[in-house]
Amino acid sequence: MIADKSQLASLSVNVTKNIKTSASSLVDISDNTCVRTSKELQLKRRIASQFSRAAKRYDCAAQVQIDIARDALRLFKQQAYGLKEGGSAEKSSKYILDIGCGTGRVTRQLAALNINSHQHIMAMDLAFGMLQYAQQTTTNKAAEQQAGKVQSIQWIQGDAEHIPIGDNTAGGVFSSMALQWCNNSALVCREINRVLAPNAQGVLAIMCTGSMHELDACWQHIDSERQINHFDSAENWFNAAKAAGLQVEMLQKNFITWHANVRELLGSMKQIGANVVTSNTRQKTIGRQTLQYLEQYYQREFGNTQGLPLTYSVCFLKLRKNAN
User: Fold this and answer.
1) Residues whose CB is less than 8 angstroms from the CB of residue 220 and which lie 6 or more positions away in sequence, other chains included
2) Strand pairing partners for 204?
3) Complete DSSP assignment for 165-188
4) Measuring CA to CA, which of 2, 56, 148, 202 is 20 to 30 A from 136?
C-alpha cells in the first residue's frame, strides 16, 4: 500500500499516530517537500535508482554486506537489549528505526528479536525498488513461516539526512552499510539524535576511509581522472555523532573480499549497486584496453594466491541519546 499525502503528513508529525502493523504497508515519500539543491536531488535519485536495479540480485551477491550486518546486529543486541551471543530479548523499545533497510533481510532479523509482539520496525530506504522487493519478500516469508515476527514492519521511503518521522519517536536505531552514501555526516547524526527517544540506543555500521583502497591506487596509476568513492573518515563520523549530542563509542574492522580477476571484482560492486560514484562527475566507459591495464597492475601490486583483494573498512558506532 502506498500512503497518500495526508497519511504522510501524519507520519511526519508523529509516527505513532499513523504506524501500520502490516507487512504490506509501504510509504512513498519520493515527492517530499524538503528543500534541496538540484545536484543533491540528482545524486540521490541516481543512488536510489542504482540500488533499486540491484534489489533482486543483491542478497545473492552481497556476502560481505551480510557479514558486516551480522556484526552490527550482534552489537545492536548487546547495546539495545543487553544480550550476549545466543540470548533472546527480554525487553524491547516499541519503535526501532532501520536506516537503509535494503532487501529487508536484516530488518526481519530485527523483528525476530522481539518476544512480546509489541515492537514495530520502521524500515527506511532511499531506493523505492529495494522497498518494494523487501516488502514482497517479507510478505512471502510471512506466509511460509512465522508471520507474527514480520507483520509489525512499516516500510518507508526516506532519506537519512531528512528522516520523515517525529521527534523523540524511535526507541532504537540500526543501520548497516547505508550511511556512507550520505554527503553530510553531521546532518545525519543530528537527524538520528532528533528522532531517538531519550536514553534510546543504537548501532551504525558505516563504510569509511580506506575502503577499496586497492582499486583506488590502481585507478590513480592507470587513469587518474577515473573516480571511486572517497568515503568519510571514521573519526569524522565519531565527531559528528558527538557534536549532535549523542554518547558514542566506536569500533573499526576491515572486511576483505577476494576475486579471480578485475572483471569479477568490478562486477561484484555493480551487482550490489556499490559502483555508484557520489560525485556528479560523469564517469567514462571502461574500454577493453583500459581493463587489461587495470588487470595487470592490480595483479602485480595486490594479487596473491587468494586472488585480488578488495577492502571494506567499516566503523561501528554504538550510540545512546542523553536522557534530556
Assistant:
1) none
2) 175, 317
3) S-TT-EEEEEEES-GGG-S-HHHH
4) 202
- Residue that is written with C-alpha cell 521511503 in the block: 157
Whole-Å CA distances, 172 to 94, 147, 211: 9, 22, 27
Q: What is the torsional sign of CA 201, 206, 209, 214? A: positive
Neighbours of 275 (CB within 10 A): 16
CA dist 145 and 40 (Å) reads: 41
Q: Which residues of the chain have pLDDT under 50?
A: 1-24, 29-35, 83-84, 86-92, 115, 280
Q: What are phi and psi of 284, to 5 degrees?
A: -80, 150
pLDDT of residue 198: 94
Chain centroid to CA 239: 20
Domains of the chain: 5-209+230-254+313-321 (3.40.50.150)
Strands 308-321 and 196-207: antiparallel
DSSP state of 26: E
- Count of CB atoms within 10 A of residue 34's CB? 11
User: What kind and span of H or E run contains 258?
Assistant: strand 246-259
Q: What is the pTM of this model?
A: 0.81
Q: How confident is the model over 100-152, as pLDDT tens digits?
A: 998 898 999 888 876 455 678 999 998 888 898 899 888 887 766 655 555 68
**Would you call 24 helix, strand, or coil by DSSP?**
coil
Is the CB of residue 128 less than 8 Å from the CB of residue 50?
Answer: no
Which one-letter amino acid corresponds to residue 215?
A: L
**Distance, CA of 172 to CA of 260 (rounded, Å):** 40
Closest CA relative to residue 129, chosen from 57, 52, 195: 52
- For residue 157, the SS3 value is strand
Beta bridge partners of 308: 259
Cell, residue 27: 510509504
C-alpha dihedral sign at 241, 243, 244, 248 = positive
Bridge partners (DSSP) listed for residue 97:
122, 173
Give the three cell numbers for residue 251: 569500533
**CA-only gyration radius of the chain, Å:** 20
